[in-house]
Amino acid sequence: MTVRTLLIDDDPDTRAIVALALDLHPDFAVAAVSRLDAADTLRRGVDAFDLILLDMKTSDMSAGALVGTVRQWSSSAAIPVLILSPKHSDAERSYRSAGAQGVIAKPFDPVALPDRVLDMLEPFGAPARRSAG
């Protein structure tokens, strides 16, 4: 099973690094977009996604407002949302209470990122982790 991932990040360099790290793994197919493009992508509902990976740096909105907005765009509010963010226990609680399923602390190891995401998605039916090599 391929995890169809929508990566939302307004920084083109970070977006490229994260997309490449995931695309090199056999279990991921990634669409990487800015926040503004994400709204159009999700509203159209043409692509079905298994995961939304959201960089909190993309907005000055609160975690609750941003995750809530992403939930409104999505044709399925059940899509897991993982947040890329500097890890602070208060922020992580805020993201989770807003509806995110997990937080990946920045900075992170791009090579380890795909397996980390798969581990976090396992309760939601993600494919069993396998080596990208």
Automatic annotation (TrEMBL):
It holds the Pfam family Response_reg. The keyword Ligase does not apply. Coiled coil: none annotated. The keyword Phosphoprotein applies. InterPro entries: Bact_response_regulator (IPR050595), CheY-like_superfamily (IPR011006), Sig_transdc_resp-reg_receiver (IPR001789). Keywords: Phosphoprotein. One of its GO terms (biological process) is phosphorelay signal transduction system. The modification 4-aspartylphosphate is found at residue 55. Residues 4-121 form the Response regulatory domain. It comes from the Bacteria. This is Response regulator. The lineage of its organism: Bacteria, Pseudomonadati, Pseudomonadota, Alphaproteobacteria, Sphingomonadales.
